[in-house]
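To the wet lab folks,

You asked to see what we're planning to order before we commit. Fair enough. Below is the target structure as tokens, and below that is the sequence we designed to fit it. If anything looks off to you, flag it before the synthesis order goes out.
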């Protein structure tokens, strides 16, 4: 049997992936329940592993102005996923929630609730947030540097897992004859004394159906990859090309052994988009049009300004890249979620060389460098490629990012999924009921375990 492909559906929000200028996109498309319901039902019809929500907590500001085309209008993750639990029965429900500004007790309780409501389909994408600008939302502007955000994320996940483990799996007996609801000494106390997470708590909720909701991690630095190796069940990566994907896959899976884990314990799922056509030429024509809608002039200018760290409003985006250099010493013109460039001079030099080689304008250059992995072609070609990438260990599957909300996944489910099923590399029916089962992950945790720095269930009180 070929290696099995795992697929998820991303609900992308308003950014440079979403063609919100399409006539099908209405002002309430990003917030109406019908949108989420359509994507979820389509994903479940296609037997996908899960639906995925990203998190955008604050509108980006650039040159002192709001950037209106980036992560606008993302509703609250828990509320959306809880509502979707009611209209789906097998699809996993994954939500991005940052570990920097949220508290482990609340996080554990919210994901346990989602896991209960959905009968074992919850997943938490643990992010650390890309900059401290978001902290002001929580009266914590500038809170924690990069290294400490990851340290906190690890401590938060470990505390959440201890909380999920604090009720014995068979704690609730609800015995009418004896009047006992919870079994004696079956609800433990969790005490953590980490550097950044220090709690003492006894959860009020029974153990989640999955034991632990699935943990996803998105973050690409060395610290991010290490956190994934240590605590995650899946990684949402941006390395979707064949070569980069294989290097990332080998790197992250290679880190697992030092935590006593095996390669199949962690699934690597890069983001990928797709554009289908009846012929290769039609698909090519479609993607060119889509890219021009995704990278409209304002998007192209904002992106280049992030690297140059300057006002480039006088530049024609259909003309050449600026000849002046990026400003590196000055304070950043951007606050909030944005592209980050470690060495702006080197990146500018690469972009200039690429633009010169291919004769690209600013806008064409941005189209070239901003895109994520895209499978473009006939359904047969797209199915071949996805399968080839997975079979050659560039990934364990993909988080699909449709460019149209909410109908963009329809044609993939109708035209590509059946071809993957014919190959035997994608399920024709769900064989399990929980997301952990869909992903082929081992069962999670147990009551009374001890973790480094975390004592779970260490004081289980008698039941009155
Ligand atoms: C593919 C991918 C998706 C991400 N999605 C989100 C998101 O939805 N919300 C968010 O706040 N951060 C998101 N992040 C940001 C990361 O969590 C992380 O905070 C950021 O990348 C900085 O960590 P790093 O230096 O390890 O990459 C994402 C990162 C990656 C690689």
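Sequence we intend to order:
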């Amino acid at each position: 049997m070929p290696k099995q492909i795992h697929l998820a559906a991303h609900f992308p929000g308003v950014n440079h992936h979403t063609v919100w200028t399409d006539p099908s996109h209405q002002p309430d498309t990003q917030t109406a329940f019908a949108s989420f319901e359509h994507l979820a039902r389509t994903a479940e019809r296609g037997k996908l592993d899960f639906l995925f929500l990203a998190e955008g907590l604050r509108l980006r500001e650039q040159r002192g102005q709001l950037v209106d085309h980036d992560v606008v209008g993302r509703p609250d993750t828990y509320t959306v996923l809880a509502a979707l639990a009611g209209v789906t029965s097998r699809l996993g429900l994954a939500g991005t929630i940052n570990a920097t500004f949220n508290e482990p007790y609340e996080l554990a309780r919210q994901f346990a609730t989602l896991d209960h409501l959905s009968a074992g389909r919850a997943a938490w994408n643990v992010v650390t947030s890309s900059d401290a600008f978001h902290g002001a939302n929580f009266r914590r502007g500038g809170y924690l540097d990069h290294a400490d955000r990851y340290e906190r994320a690890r401590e938060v996940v470990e505390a959440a897992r201890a909380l999920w483990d604090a009720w014995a799996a068979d704690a609730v007996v609800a015995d009418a004859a004896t009047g006992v609801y919870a079994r004696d000494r079956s609800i433990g106390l969790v005490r953590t004394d980490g550097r950044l997470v220090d709690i003492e708590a006894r959860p009020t909720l029974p153990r989640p159906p999955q034991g632990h909701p699935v943990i996803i991690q998105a973050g690409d630095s060395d610290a991010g990859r290490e956190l994934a190796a240590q605590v995650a069940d899946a990684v949402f990566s941006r390395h979707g090309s064949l070569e980069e994907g294989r290097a990332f896959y080998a790197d992250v899976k290679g880190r697992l052994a030092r935590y006593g884990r095996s390669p199949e314990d962690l699934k690597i799922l890069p983001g990928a988009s797709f554009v289908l056509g009846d012929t290769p030429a039609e698909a090519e024509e479609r993607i060119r049009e889509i890219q021009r809608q995704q990278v409209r002039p304002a998007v192209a200018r904002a992106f280049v300004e992030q690297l140059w760290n300057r006002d480039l409003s006088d530049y024609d985006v259909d003309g050449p890249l600026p000849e002046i250099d990026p400003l590196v010493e000055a304070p950043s013109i951007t606050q909030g979620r944005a592209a980050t460039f470690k060495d702006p001079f080197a990146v500018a030099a690469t972009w200039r060389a690429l633009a010169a080689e291919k004769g690209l304008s600013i806008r064409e250059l941005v189209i070239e460098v901003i895109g994520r992995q895209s499978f473009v072609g006939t359904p047969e070609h797209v199915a071949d490629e996805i399968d080839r990438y997975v079979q050659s260990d560039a990934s364990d599957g993909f988080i699909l990012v449709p460019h149209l909300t909410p109908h963009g996944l329809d044609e993939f489910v109708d035209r590509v999924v059946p071809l993957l099923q014919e190959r035997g590399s994608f399920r024709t029916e769900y064989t399990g009921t929980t997301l952990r089962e869909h992903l082929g992950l081992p069962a999670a945790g147990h009551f009374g375990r001890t973790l480094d720095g975390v004592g779970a269930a260490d004081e289980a009180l008698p039941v009155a």
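Structural context that might help your review: The first strand starts at residue 6 and ends at 11. Confidence is low (pLDDT under 50) at residues 450-455.

Thanks,
Computational group
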